[in-house]
Amino acid sequence: MVRPEDGQSVAAELISDCLRDGSTTLDLSRLCLETIPESLTALTHLTALDLRVNKLTVLPEWLGDLTALTFLDLGYNKLTAPPEWLGNLTALTTLDLSGNELTVLPEWLGNLTHLTELNLYGSELTALPEWLGNLTHLTRLDLFGNELTVLPDSLGDLTALTFLDLGGNELTALPESLGNLTHLTELNLYDNKLTVLPECLGHLTALTTLDLSGSDLRDSDLSSNELTVLPEWLGNLTALTTLHLSCNELTALPESLGNLTHLTELYLYDNKLTVLPECLGHLTALTTLDLRYNKLTALPESLGNLTALTTLHLSGNKLTALPESLGNLTHLTDLGLGYNKLTALPESPADHRYPHMG
Fold this sequence. Notes:
Strand order of the largest sheet: 1-2-3-4-5-6-7-8-9-10-11-12-13-14
Distance between the termini: 41 Å
Largest sheet: 14 strands, parallel
Strand content: 5-15%
Keywords: Leucine-rich repeat, Repeat
Protein name: Leucine-rich repeat domain-containing protein
Structural class: little secondary structure
Domain Disease resistance R13L4/SHOC-2-like LRR: 109-217, 256-337
Helix content: under 10%
Radius of gyration: 25 Å
Order of helices and strands: HEEEEEEEEEEEEEE
Shape: elongated
InterPro entries: Leu-rich_rpt, Leu-rich_rpt_typical-subtyp, LRR_dom_sf, LRR_domain-containing, LRR_R13L4/SHOC2-like
Number of strands: 14
Number of helices: 1
């Protein structure tokens, strides 16, 4: 690890090189800096400054003079309340404050209306202000690993968002306004405390990735979703390619799941499924299907239609037999069948052999 005194020397040298070369980017990350060298004030032409993974507890006021910055990474320092004058950096399009000790969002953040990416994951936020909805140019918002229990309705004003990560919080419900985020392609809600899903999520028809999984360490203090049923409107999300539903309390799957014909990955391990619907056989683009640790006693013949599958995990169920149609899955390279009650395997097509089975 770099010692603070060595980090200062390295930083001074990098700043000198940047001034000499006229570079517009400066990387001072991972130098164990406790203070920022004042020589940085000369670099008024900087557009990108990376101060990630240092030991900064305060920021010098002159940092607010670097008004050409469009990228500023302050992640993983020891900041508790970045100062208001950082709001002078109104050209910023990317701001990373993740991994600090923030408990509230500073008011000046609302001045940064050109932001397209805001990273706040791994902080200690318990609530979000309504004015967050003013940052209408945001396309990426990462709030993973905070302590949020509710979301403001104004989150639905961020209609340019394509990526939203709310995983690892304490959410028990979601605002109806989330249904306005119709440009979202990735929505992460894993490891919260959700028991039901609002109908508004069915409007997010551009989604390609949706993660609703719970924690696989449910006896710990971590949050965990506990969905018991899936709504029929899930079948509206026909652009989905990846769907995570693992570690919930699901006992059945809706017929509308068969509409998701672009799915390539479906994760359902550690639920309480006893049967699978025949409609699962419509998901012919699937390459990965994970059904480990459920309560399945039989499989539908329609699984044999999933001929693109390369990974099929069925371990930890109560299967006594497999359908003959599984012999059609000639692209399988990973087949997990352990911890069942199987006594025989179905015949496979000529020249086909079952892959390694775990």
